[in-house]
User: Fold this.
Amino acid sequence: MKKIGLVGWRGMVGSVLMARMREEKDFDLVEPFFFTTSQAGQSSPEVAGQTSVLIEAFDIAALKDMDIIITCQGSNYTNDVYYKLRRSGWNGFWIDAASALRMKDHAVITLDPVNLKLIQDSLVNGVKDFIGGNCTVSLMLMGLGGLFKANLVEWASAMTYQAASGAGAVHMRELILQMGAISSSVETLIDSPELGILDIDKAVTQCMQSEQFPLANWGFPLAGSILPWIGDAKENGQSGEEWKNEAETNKILGNVQGAISLDGLCVRIGAMRCHSQALTIKMRENVSVADIEDLILEGNPWSAIVPNEKHASLERLTPAAIAGSLTVPVGRIRKMNIGDRYLSAFTAGDQLLWGAAEPLRRMLRVVLDYLG
Ligand code: HSE
Assistant:
């Protein structure tokens, strides 16, 4: 059995990955070794009734013994370890959730329901580095991959509504603390029939603007508000998150950069773990909504259509409805007033599943299949 080294398995994405690997019985196919940046020598999690000893994650000799490494430890770890490991002569498969290597020529962004052929061709050509994509990009392509596959998208604008999970576990906790602080601030007021809603609103605003409001991680109130910037700043005015949309989409699809233009504003909202996106798509041809829905469904087994109806949209096309699910629903599909080649769509997907852990887990399977 192939030796697989797991790094960053205890964090949020790593924990989701571990749970999915257990569910899908991936551990039956590999010999796992658990690495740690802080607890070497302690006991590993139990797999098939057995534990082992946690190995130091910066131990290049130990990493070099692995056939496949999957890391959810983040870009600092990747930048620190990856090059040392390759320079040491290691020729194994590196499967990584972090963005550090994503746009490198030697790496493929892995999203096999969308780009399996590219992945398989790359394996034959000796590529060894497979990196999970940005969560919004992966989720957009899981939902709307069928339209890209049919080469119907001339350009698209994705306006995102991104959940707290994309920023990390401590940010999720702080979002809940913010919600709690707001709720507590009006606890005695909310049920007083003599108080008008504007008095309650005033108390909420005071709470959100007070120095006690918990925002050590977000820097600003997110609960009861939104944050219209995610990531660093690019010279052209895009945020880092916005820049990834076009660059990563084209790379995943195997296009030359810029082949399909994509842009939009990325916004953080107070959802927990599901990113949503509102899309405007300029299509290359005037295709009927029925055919568009068929193409979306043919794209991959996880995309689903929500009819463009009020109740269905509110019931099935929300972060609350799809948290914890691998289904990526697409709805609000209609031709826009602007013209019959302009399509609107809305999609939501679990940021920790298809947005992070699942493409890595499935990449492991693709590598194992390839190695026979
Ligand atoms: N950058 C994303 C976010 C994380 O902040 O939501 C997923 O790639």
Notes: The radius of gyration is 22 Å. The longest strand covers residues 339-350.
